[in-house]
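Entry under discussion copied across for reference:
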Amino acid sequence: MPAPSLVSVVIPTRDGAATLAEVLDALFAQRAPFAFEVVMVDSGSRDATLEIARHHPVRVHRVRPEEFDHGETRNLGVRLAKGDPVALLTQDATPAAPDFLEQLVRPFEDPRVAGVYGRQLPRPDCDVVTRRQLEGWLTGRSEPALAALDADSLEQLTPLARLELCTFDNVCSALRRTVWEKIPFPRGSFGEDIAWGKAVIAEGFALAYEPRAAVHHSHRRSVAYEWSRTRICHQRLSELFELETVPRLRDVLRASLANLRRDLPYVMRFAPGGSERVLQLARIAALSVVSPLAQHLGARDARRVRDRGRA
């Protein structure tokens, strides 16, 4: 596509005051060779989110909390936006460099590219366990990548290969408007981004990963939260790709031991001393069991839904 005249950035928000100011400050410090706008879609913030937005040249659209949907709310933001491409950020994804936005849209010079997603870097206060997880996932890679289907259909690939090919992440992403007009985000409470990635890959488009478009993004989440998130994540991955990383209950123990062998040396090497080290060791021990069990149960949940549909 030709050099854009206007790029839009869409940010869904709700009670994002803890990080939104630094996100907006970093956005409006961008040195981009094009004009850009920022559109917020807020779903009922009760903290200082809207006050923070008023200190920046941001267009704010408000919806009721019960109207929020990960796919439809982002579709609304794209419809409200005027630019092309349209970037999407979460309220806690802080651009890491002043050329972030330029790097995020650069891959659209290739007409095959429907969407681009960027690298996620841990925040300075990130715990060592979460840092390990970020570095090990596809959004932590240091080299750019271009994904496009080189088989007759996705079904010819293994479930894991399908996932890797279709990965797209709305923590930090951008899309080509003309493709989105044909393939908007699906409704859903989770995984609208990777479902969109699967749809555009199946239609013959490409997805680009651009690590130079990096954001600082990480969370210190409880083990209970990780349990519920992992379970719903793997239910969705099974629905989309028939992926079952821990297919049988007896595989949970083997996966738990493998996790410990992989992650424990990392924690021992990089965790700080004192009580924080003890906490991180306890966390990695808990997650080594919780994560594979949640993966198994999430895939089982999806399998049961499929079975009921066939009955």
Notes: The mean pLDDT is 94.
